[in-house]
Amino acid sequence: MLGAVAGYLADARFGDPRRGHPVAVFGSAAARLEKALWRDRRDTGAVHTAVCVGTVAAGAALADHALRRSTAGRAALVAAATWTVLGGTSLTREARIVARSLRAGDLDAARERLPHLCGRDPRGLDEGQLARAVVESVAENTADAVVNALTWGAVAGAPGLLAFRAVNTLDAMVGHRSARYRRFGWASARLDDVAGWPGARLTALLTVAAAPEPRRAWRVWRRDGSSHPSPNAGQAESAFAGALGVRLGGTLRYGDGPRPETGVPPAEGWGRTEHRPILGGELRPVTVDDIERACLLSRRVGTLALAVTVGTRVLAGGLRRHTDPSYGHKELP
């Protein structure tokens, strides 16, 4: 677990690399495979998902196996994988860039920057709507880009970290309800729902723990979390709504293509409108100042997630040593 701590600190200090990010490389490769395989069918989409995720998981598992006799080597592998998949620092950096544009009254700059956080159509959004979009993106991506990654790292080490990020990236690319991806992206979307289930609930619990008013965060989460059309996004967003004392949800307009973080440009045009339930309906609307509050809350949740996942792994190792006397001992020749 020293590797997880080192990777988390590397993300906190440096964020994502500006060029040549492994996730962008994966996104480009997945897009090329999509061009070769695409059919308006679920089975071909399932093959696309299996090949993309399976290749990443198998490669990470082989590297982990090759380093099985080197504690330092495995720690370095986990550190590199953790730094690669975590996106907490880049998430808050992008959110703050939008916030600075809003404080300066430059709505055009804020609209131009919003797609770096999410795939929404920024045209026509006013200051409050842009701020709400940023806060919702910070909440959802705290679960996806931080807590879920750490959770799967605790469960399965470097292969778990990298496989989860592959699943999450594919969902961002093809897991849409658009005409092109309704069938082809079905497998990626369902796999992302399954993989994101534990981390989304842990995110909500940790948000309640980190909230200035935990009781309000708990109440809004338990009441509104399951009303969201996504089985996972609503958990984090409702908990953030209660923690920050703001109202989230409502009508959203999305594009047909993947988000820029995947390294593949979004498709032209904006094709989907969703009417989502209100989360924290009795609370006040989001303001620009709430973006910074959401960023600080996201960092606290990420730190708690690191502590919980590392602590769980350490306790599991201690329990195994206690119940299995042969654990950690080499066999005699």
TrEMBL record:
Its main location: membrane. One of its GO terms (cellular component) is plasma membrane. InterPro entries: Cobalamin_biosynth_CobD/CbiB (IPR004485). Keywords: Cell membrane, Cobalamin biosynthesis, Membrane, Transmembrane, Transmembrane helix. Residues 252-276 are annotated as: Disordered. One of its GO terms (biological process) is cobalamin biosynthetic process. NCBIfam families: cobal_cbiB, PRK01209.1-4. This is Cobalamin biosynthesis protein CobD. It comes from Kitasatospora camelliae.
